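Running this now, will post back.
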Amino acid sequence: MVLPFTKMEGLGNDFVMVEDFRPDADQVRAWCDRRLGIGADGVLSLSRSSRAGVVVRMDYWNSNGSGAEMCGNGLRCVARYVFDRDWTRDRSFGVETPVGLRQVEVRADGLVRAELGPYSLGSSVEACGFSFTSAEVGNPHAVAFVADQAALDKADLEAIGPAMQDHPAFPEGVNVELVAPCSAGAWQVRVWERGVGETRACGTGAAAVAAVVAARSGERDPVGIRLPGGELGVELIDGAAWIQGPAVQVFEGTIRI
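Update: finished.
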């Protein structure tokens, strides 16, 4: 038996997308393997929704097979996927996620805007030689600032990320963001995602950084978050985070199951 799939990416954060099929952990790991499989940061399962104003339900698994509460770039890719396949002709619509209903907008200029929902900041955490601020954007984050781009490049995120998974402040694990100033209103960010490793981009991570920046500065203006995969726009509106950026189909194929 074969299962159709689509490979999509948002700023290099890439996904295997399937319809009406919930993979097990072994399948997720096999599909996401970049040498022996399709290669991806995670797997998204989509199913049509019967709720009024809601088009699709999404569920997400990290590349190591673990489930995740929310994936911001994945949400944008879901929006692009269903709009391009005429599941709806409305450019703005709702998506069901494990953390609740989220609104998305497929813009005429090709960008996709998505609501990540409420965000909150927690306590400061001293770990791995950094002072982290904990944040929630539907999933847990730890955000730390460094002096400049050189310090950001030098940081051993592949060691810091795994070490943070054992910290008692984050019993369910945590996504880790290191941040350096790069220009007025913009910040350079590297992200280590739990269950994946360092990624080219992370939508919820970008939102967590913007929330911490806003708390530090007192400003709520849109923040430019520059990630290895490109720039993601973040807005903080009435206690909710929104992100905006590209979502692109890479290729289609079938998986033997």
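The longest helix spans residues 203-217. More later if anyone needs it.
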